[in-house]
Known about the structure:
It is built from nine helices and 39 strands. By secondary structure, it is of the alpha/beta class. It has two domains: 2-213, Spore Coat Polysaccharide Biosynthesis Protein SpsA, Chain A; 248-431, Hexapeptide repeat proteins (UDP N-Acetylglucosamine Acyltransferase, domain 1). Strands 12, 13, 15, 16, 18, 19, 21, 22, 24, 25, 27 and 29 form a twelve-stranded parallel sheet that branches. It is elongated. The chain binds uridine-diphosphate-N-acetylglucosamine (UD1) and calcium ion. Residues 97, 99, 221, 223 line the site of calcium ion.
Amino acid sequence: MNAVILAAGLGTRMKSKRPKVVHEILGKPMVEYVIGAVKGAGVEHIILVVGHKAEEVKSAIRSDVDFVLQQPQLGTGHAVMVAKESLPDEGEVLVLAGDTPLITSQTLDNMVKYHREKGYAATVVTALVDDPTGYGRIVKDDGGDIVRIVEHKDASADELGICEINAGMYCFDVKKLKEVLGSISNDNAQKEYYLTDAIALLREKGYRVGAFLADSHEVMGINDRVQLWEASSIMKDRVLKKHMLNGVTIVDPNNTYIGPDVKIGQDTVIYPGCVIEGEVEIGDDCYIAGSRLIDCKIGHRCNVLNSVIVSSQVKDNVNIGPFAYVRPESVIGNNVKIGDFVEIKKSIIGDRTKVPHLTYVGDAQIGSECNLGCGTIFVNYDGKVKHKTVVGDRVFIGCNSNLVAPVLIEDDSYIAAGSTITDNVPKKALAIARERQVIKEGWVDKKFNKQEDN
Ligand code: UD1
Ligand code: CA
């Protein structure tokens, strides 16, 4: 089974510098949802037709698809003509638009089954909507087969009254589609080659075309940003319900945003204000509140409060925040504490180490059971290059210390508070790198020449 997804159009109504199909829903480009639904329906070979800002569309896509370039963009029928050579000579092809992200694999699956059972040359997904403005209208014969599809701009007054619309998703017999593709003309209101004209052409050849009625939510096409928001709300609810039914507590679904690829374990509680997007995996029994988690893995029994974690791994029993920032390529070990106003960048933190407050850890490797005092700074940048700091196990770093990289702090050593460490510290040593304290008795009176009161 093959699929062609049309994503070459301009998307004028989005009023955007970016192509429409890369606009995101819960952190994922809308066209990726269409690709996902098609894949979920068992389609292996997907052809994505790109054109307007093709490079931008291509670079936004992570899924494995073949790209075909449509240049210039002369309509949906023209887009399929461009993909024709990449299709086999026989079998079936699904054709979908890249701007209908709410479609599900289940519906596509049912549509294909229906298409086969009825032996249609083409099956069109349709929906009954209250306001059909902008959509193609389905014109049927007395037996319920589709005679033709008429675009809104070409429709007569009678046809405009039809509330069954074309969802822009089709299953075609490839051979029969190829027979009629070349006959599509652009003799219409928009001077475009309409794919929808293939339907009437198939009928003229004596083939039958069926309608598969779907839920109107699933076929919603996104043309402007109001519809983008509407689709996002529907998708958001779908995702949240799935997690709740899987055993995750979502305290306030109105204020929680979870992307479609996020996995969450049982008995984890998600408090309001969370934005969790991309490839995220969260274990069981976690408590996440007011945080932004992007592309990261969180273990079991972790608490994350008002923090940001990006492209990093957090193991089990970890407490993060409030107000911590874990930046990409960091690994936080088991039973670690990352406290308030702590930034961790590209660093590995060993098990049971504590970084409780006001600390910057950058380009570091820290062993287990260390304690980093308040205000510890890993000085990783010399103005030109970043350098690495290595800290062993059971190291105690006093408050307000600077570790100037590259530097090695060996196991079981101590660093005195307020030190600026520029040289390696050997095992079990104490490093003090600051001026000794000096006391100047009576200094204040001398300085200000105060008279003793008699
Ligand atoms: C299309 C259908 C309409 C249907 C509606 C459902 C046609 C002629 N009309 O209208 O019957 O009700 O979808 O949402 O097909 N595209 C290309 N190349 C082009 C033009 C468009 O790849 O040259 C892509 C667009 O990027 C988009 C999709 O095709 O993803 C649909 O195009 P759009 O212009 O949105 O079609 P509609 O006017 O919505
Ligand atoms: Ca559309």
